[in-house]
Amino acid sequence: AQSVTQLDSQVPVFEEAPVELRCNYSSSVSVYLFWYVQYPNQGLQLLLKYLSGSTLVKGINGFEAEFNKSQTSFHLRKPSVHISDTAEYFCAVSEPFSGYSTLTFGKGTMLLVSP
Amino acid sequence: ETGVTQTPRHLVMGMTNKKSLKCEQHLGHNAMYWYKQSAKKPLELMFVYNFKEQTENNSVPSRFSPECPNSSHLFLHLHTLQPEDSALYLCASSDSDRKEAFFGQGTRLTVV
């Protein structure tokens, strides 16, 4: 079985400040890792993904994340946030499986960007 | 036009009603999913269909009945729901190569 822990339920930050949203996972096998963003009254949009290869992955809207196998972490970072980044962010894992994907999500972190 | 379209966006139903949620994907994917998003809880996978065959049913009560007539369409039939079933229901699709799931905008369901 796999699980995802997002340690912070809310992260308040000022505009143009850097931010890190933390994600830790547990799994008995290798995993795929994802970050999704959800704006109010919307579905989930993929920010970035790690499947294999370079441990630093870059996504949309200036976000990046680093896969750390020894610490079983996949923290999301952005060097300078905007008001428009206010949203809920979900970390998710999926075990490599041929045919389809079954995502296990964390509880989410609400990023609150203020001026 | 988004890749995954859900209708309706909002639904209010009584506990004795029967209604259906619809999902359509225009991405050519082979797998479709229903997720439930409740307040204060992680997203819960409800059902998975792969090539129109149901491959997962995560102990979902029988008052939720999925239907997948083809790889592009997915329905969730609802009957005799409870107030605790009020939630955002998200549909998603994926293919075997890209691994990530693409989500619709969801149906906000309120059971009164």
Structure commentary:
The complex is a heterodimer of chains A (115) and B (112). With 115 residues, chain A is mostly beta strands. Helix content of chain A is 0%, strand content 50%. Chain A contains no helices and 12 strands. Chain A has strands spanning 3-5, 10-14, 19-21, 24-26, 32-38, 44-50, 56-58, 64-68, 73-78, 87-94, 104-105, 109-114. In chain A, the strands form 3 sheets. In chain A, strands 2, 5, 6, 10, 11 and 12 form a 6-stranded mixed β-sheet that branches. Chain A is globular and about 40 Å long. Chain A starts with a strand and ends with a strand. Chain B is an all-beta fold. In chain B, 0% of the residues lie in helices and 57% in strands. Chain B has strands spanning 4-7, 10-13, 18-25, 31-37, 44-50, 53-57, 64-70, 73-79, 87-94, 102-103, 107-111. In chain B, the strands form 2 sheets. In chain B, strands 2, 4, 5, 6, 9, 10 and 11 form a 7-stranded mixed β-sheet that branches. Chain B has a 4-stranded antiparallel β-sheet with strand order 1-3-8-7, with no helix packed on it. Chain B is globular, with a radius of gyration of 13 Å. Classes of the chains: A mainly beta (115), B mainly beta (112). Chain A binds chain B through residues 4, 32, 34, 36, 41-46, 49, 51, 90, 94, 96, 98-108, and chain B through 4, 6, 30-31, 40-43, 45, 48, 50, 55-56, 90, 92, 94, 96, 99-106, 108.
Distance between the termini of chain B: 32 Å
Q: What is the radius of gyration of chain B computed over CA atoms, rounded to a whole number of angstroms?
A: 13 Å
N-C termini distance of chain A: 41 Å
| Number of DSSP-assigned strands of chain B | 11
Chain oligomer state: heterodimer
Largest protein interface? A-B, 26 and 26 residues
Structural class of chain A: mainly beta
Largest sheet of chain A, in brief, is:
6 strands, mixed
Percent of residues in helices of chain B comes to under 10%
